[in-house]
Amino acid sequence: MVKAIGIVLFPGTEELDAIGPWEVLAFWTRQFPGDGYAVTTLSREGGSVECAKGLVVQAANSYADAPELDVLLYPGGQGTRPQLDDEQQLDWVRAQRERVPLMTSVCTGSLVYAAAGLLHGRPATTHWASLDVLSDLDPSIDLRRDARFVDDGDVITAAGVSAGIDMALHLVRRLAGADRAREVRRYIQYDPEPPV
């Protein structure tokens, strides 16, 4: 049976938070279906979602019709801010924690996890500009300010934006091995050498 990885989309999702991991995970799951994973997208209502910088993305599923997930990836962006007080959304996140074996986040997606109580007493990270917000949401969090991502077993949090690619490659390594992760990294030609 194929295991499902779901990437959450919502109005104001930071584009690269979702699309960077999608590129990694979609290449992996489509090129190597024998590894037994597939990746999909979901949003509260399904349908199109306008991201933070205007990119419109079509969510394949609504929360109600999404497949049973083995991994949930929660991106960040300004769209996470209203969710910190949205009890319906936080209850949904808590319900996912009850049934999804591996919860992951990118950037300020970890703020939503913190608001839902998922990071209490755990190590975690987020975008550098939101580290203090994460700490304010739950002072018990062991803040990892300099980490690209933090793997705490059944919860993985990543720093901002492009760190989601690093986390997604780590996820491939965890689920399918280091050799597979290297193949994926080579194909997407991810070997950062910033020009500045």
UniProtKB/TrEMBL annotation:
User: Which Gene3D superfamilies does UniProt cross-reference here?
Assistant: 3.40.50.880
Q: In the record, which residues are listed under signal peptide?
A: none
- Look up the domain of life of the source: Bacteria
Q: From the Swiss-Prot or TrEMBL record, give the protein name.
A: DJ-1/PfpI family protein
Annotated InterPro entries: Class_I_gatase-like, DJ-1/PfpI, INH-QAR
Q: Where is each DJ-1/PfpI domain found?
A: 5-173
Species whose genome carries this gene: Leekyejoonella antrihumi
Matches recorded under Pfam families: DJ-1_PfpI
For this protein, the record's PANTHER family field holds: ARAC-FAMILY TRANSCRIPTIONAL REGULATOR (PTHR43130), HTH-TYPE TRANSCRIPTIONAL REGULATOR RV1931C (PTHR43130:SF3)
